[in-house]
Amino acid sequence: MGRSVLVTGGNRGIGLAIARELADAGHSVAVTHRGSGAPEGLFGVKADVTDAEQVDAAFQQIEQHQGPVEVLVSNAGITDDTLLMRMSEDQFSRVVDANLTGAYRVAKRASRGMLRGRWGRFVFISSVVGLSGGAGQVNYAASKAGLVGLARSLTRELGSRNITANVVAPGFIVTDMTDELTDEQRSSALERIPAGRYGEAGDVARAVRFLASDDASYVNGAVLPVDGGLGMGH
Ligand code: NDP
């Protein structure tokens, strides 16, 4: 059955792969962008997840276009890496605002329609770093760990209404985000990945496709690593 889906940050990278995978599965898929426009074949809404008014306006457009959001994939995220000693409060807050408070904003707005429809799927894109930590990533890791508590609390609040909230924790996935890493960081990561390869956006997208499906109706409050074994299941 085709569902109404929103993927935040679905204009590129992992989000775009998720959006395409869900569109291929027969769903109506909307994506947010911040000015790049919508990728071909997907319904685009301009919204920055750090702004609750833009989020609300985006949901209204989606509701008119394809009905209330039934599957929310909260994927938009940023990094701003540096060691704690050098990290300004603004650097910390900016990353948490986009990655964690942004997820709260979209989840809250989506929950209304899901409750009314008595069906829903929340999928939050976290990171292996949220569970294992990462030097130079105090802000990013804190925001990604926060998504686990957020999703599990949602599970407790809404689990009896056919609504699930799960977390996907990708490892090293080749995108613009990882292009920013140095060759040394990249090869050191590869040495630690039992699968012996970096991940592709499609690896994450296929996991999200499962969690968004009716087949995953009894999977709730889970953290699903998609990391080639990098985090050993954590
Ligand atoms: P990219 O940097 O390639 O893409 C980030 C996406 O997030 C873009 O679509 C961007 O939009 C959007 N975005 C960022 N900030 C905002 C905002 N304030 N409001 C709306 N959209 C925003 O990253 P990836 O595709 O690699 O990452 C996607 C998610 O996966 C992120 O949450 C990331 O933390 C997570 N992840 C990635 C890993 C990797 O190895 N690549 C590993 C683990 C987790 P725009 O185009 O407008 O900038």
TrEMBL record:
Keywords: Oxidoreductase
SUPFAM superfamilies (UniProt xref): NAD(P)-binding Rossmann-fold domains
Occurrences of domain Ketoreductase (ranges): 3-180
A GO molecular-function descriptor: oxidoreductase activity
Keyword Oxidoreductase found: yes
Keyword Protein biosynthesis: no
CDD domains, per the entry: BKR_SDR_c (cd05333)
InterPro entries registered for this protein in UniProt: KR_dom, NAD(P)-bd_dom_sf, SDR, SDR_fam
Family of this protein: Belongs to the short-chain dehydrogenases/reductases (SDR) family.
Full protein name: Beta-ketoacyl-ACP reductase
